[in-house]
Specification:
Largest sheet of chain A: none
Distance between the termini of chain A: 45 Å
Oligomer: heterodimer
Number of helices of chain B: 6
Radius of gyration of chain A: 22 Å
Helix content of chain B: over 70%
Distance between the termini of chain B: 32 Å
Structural class of chain B: mainly alpha
Largest interface: A-B, 65 and 61 residues
Shape of chain A: globular
Helix content of chain A: over 70%
Order of helices and strands of chain B: HHHHHH
Structural class of chain A: mainly alpha
Number of strands of chain B: 0
Strand content of chain A: under 5%
Mean pLDDT of chain A: 87
Low-confidence stretches of chain B: none
Low-confidence stretches of chain A: none
Number of strands of chain A: 0
Shape of chain B: elongated
Order of helices and strands of chain A: HHHHHHHHHHHHHHHHHHHHH
Radius of gyration of chain B: 22 Å
């Protein structure tokens, strides 16, 4: 069978099964099995068994359940309910005022939770009613939330970067550091847009509230500081080479338990709930990872990624042309697939092509995450849109329209990152241990 | 029967949680040992040299255990990702037919994987292959945990398929609906 026919069959099987609602992990396994059976005489079943074991029996992956667990604990702590009170004194006087609470709150919550839907839902439930009662423009309030809710993927500890690192055998510590500056840059771009917008539409912004007193600021700091310090300690110890990602994550779990124990909100039910929730999220990701790693091997047997890579090489496209084409392709995929699925599919088929074009795999990981963020706010399937639909009761496409400026900022950020790759690569390059 | 099955799924999830707690405990002891040693070194005292042998290897085994033992509970709680876009275009009957269809495929795939993983465990047992670390572990033991998780997962999928074919709502659909009410459909 020639490679073109085989590729078409595999694409039809994959997207057919996905659209019918087969679980992503199973769909990846199925395509892998079909590819092996059609293209090779290799023993499919025993390769499947060895690959599943080999892809998950990996020390680096233990960081995954630990970071998820840390997030689950903090998610159940009082942090969620204190976020608005804690942040509002600091953003009141900025142009755009409390709209910045959405951006900062999501950035902070993203650092602990790593799940984009949970971030959007938690911050949104808190901030949207407050913003409404203060007379803020709801279009802007919902838009900032939809956009900022996607931070979870980029700001470390990012679950999706662990998945990318495990699937491509890149250092997770370096990926985390590579994501930090682009994440902060994105937050600054969002905040900048909110400021510009409010200066241009003074009629749609409520009058600024009085300057907060010193005591109000101190009270607010007391609510947020422990969590902020924990995050800085976790990321800082990875950067300084003091701890591996897993070790930092375990210290994070211990710190999260201490914080929620001291501030209240830690009882038997929430302890067990956090542990069970973390186990299930870990399991969901591990299942997709196992399916993807088998698919990667199966694809290797078919020779499709090699052919694609050499074809791209012969065409002599510039890196920019290749990245722009991939950008469009991923945005289309993002219309109906979730982030982790996009990442694992990419690593199975597209990564050889990308490295053949001379693109740094660490940088590409950050690029991929930015694209995945976009997929969260594109209809008809965008997880953040669904979350906001249920909080606000507005239609998917209406919310997508409110999020459109932030989608465009994401595209702009991707372009900036392509022109200045150092934004991602500088920090990991200065890491103390290699 | 229902009660017995739910107990098995619950016990498997408890096993997964236990594996996670064990990872955390081992790593925490490792980190504390290092911190204490650095403190002692700074004071010019003799280091304890406390470390857990083969922690990286055990971490890998425990991660596999956590991932596979949680499979059935995650299925029933609708934790596994899937695209439910076209379900919205179908009525109750179409929904049930599609649920039965994907469950049947999943049972086939899970059964296939389980079969070959069991063969792999037997192979590891017969060949006597062991881990490479300082503490030598016969590899069939951690691989067996993976096989056990897969067996229970296959049972859970058959369980859901039978429920669907009887005309009842499978647990994962009920959980998806409950989540749709709370967070919006996915």
């Amino acid at each position: 069978m020639d490679i073109a026919t085989l590729s078409i069959i595999l694409l039809v099987v994959l997207f057919g099964l996905l659209l019918l609602g087969l679980w992503v992990g199973f769909a990846l396994l199925a395509v892998g099995i079909v590819a092996m059976e059609l293209a090779t005489g290799a023993p499919t079943g025993s390769i499947l068994a060895t690959k599943i074991w080999g892809s998950l029996n990996v020390w680096d992956l233990t960081a995954l359940p630990m970071f998820i667990w840390m997030g689950e604990i903090l998610f159940r702590s009082r942090l969620s309910s204190d976020l608005f009170t804690g942040l509002s004194p600091f953003t009141r006087r900025l142009p755009g005022g409390l709209l910045h609470v959405n951006i900062l709150g999501c950035a902070l919550f993203a650092a602990v939770s790593g799940s984009s839907a949970a971030t959007t839902a938690t911050v949104g439930r808190m901030s949207l009613p407050e913003l409404k009662s203060r007379g803020y423009d709801m279009r802007m309030a919902i838009g900032t939330l939809a956009g900022s809710g996607t931070f979870g993927f980029l700001i470390p500890p990012s679950i999706i970067l662990i998945v990318y690192g495990a699937a491509t055998e890149q250092s997770i510590a370096r990926l985390f550091l590579a994501g930090l500056l682009p994440g902060l840059m994105l937050a600054a771009m969002f905040a900048g847009y909110v400021m510009l917008w409010s200066l241009m539409h003074p009629d749609r912004v409520p009058a600024p509230e009085p300057r907060p007193t010193l005591r109000q600021r101190a009270r607010a700091l007391k609510l947020l500081l422990p969590t902020v310090l924990l995050i800085v300690a976790v990321i800082g110890s990875i950067y300084a080479g003091l701890a591996s990602p897993t070790e930092a994550a375990v210290v994070g779990v211990a710190g999260a338990l201490a914080i929620s124990g001291l501030t209240g909100g830690l009882d038997r039910d929430s302890l067990i709930g956090a542990l069970r929730g973390a186990a299930m999220t870990t399991c969901m990701i591990a299942f997709i990872l196992a399916g993807a790693s088998f698919l990667t091997v199966a694809m290797g047997f078919t020779g499709i990624p090699r052919t694609l890579a050499s074809w791209i090489g012969e065409q002599g496209y510039s890196q920019f042309a290749l990245l722009s084409a991939l950008l469009v392709f991923f945005i289309v995929l993002g219309f109906f697939l979730d982030g982790i699925s996009i990442v694992v599919l990419t690593t199975s088929v597209i990564l050889p092509m990308v490295t053949a074009a001379g693109i740094d795999p660490i940088w590409f990981g950050i690029f991929l995450v930015l694209v995945v963020e976009m997929s969260q706010i594109t209809p008809p399937v965008g997880f953040n849109l669904f979350v906001l639909q249920s909080i606000t009761g507005r239609g998917i496409f209406e919310i997508a329209l409110m999020a459109l400026p932030f989608f465009l900022i994401l595209v702009l950020a991707t372009a900036v990152l392509s022109v200045f790759p150092e934004i991602a690569l500088w920090l990991p390059g200065t890491m103390m241990s290699r | 029967m229902r009660k017995a099955l739910d107990t098995v799924y619950g016990a498997a999830l408890a096993g997964a949680c236990l594996a996670m707690v064990t990872i955390a405990t081992l790593v925490l002891i490792q980190v504390l040992g290092r911190v204490i040693d650095q403190g002692l070194e700074a004071l010019g005292m003799e280091m304890l040299g406390m470390s857990i042998p083969s922690v990286a290897e055990f971490g890998g085994f425990l991660f596999v255990a956590a991932a596979f033992l949680a499979l059935p509970a995650t299925l029933r709680a609708a934790g596994h990702v899937r695209v439910t876009l076209i379900l919205r275009g179908f009525g109750p009957l179409g929904n049930r037919v599609l649920a039965a269809f994907v469950l049947a495929i999943a049972v086939g795939l899970a059964g296939y994987a389980t079969w070959y993983v069991i063969l792999d465990v037997l192979d590891a047992y017969r060949s006597g292959s062991v881990s490479y670390g300082r503490i030598v572990v016969p590899l069939w033991i951690p691989k067996m945990v993976m096989a056990a998780g897969l067996v229970i997962f296959t049972v859970a999928l058959v369980d859901e398929l039978v429920t669907t074919l009887r005309g009842d709502d499978p647990a994962f659909r009920a959980a998806e609906r409950a989540r749709d009410m709370q967070e919006g459909p996915r």
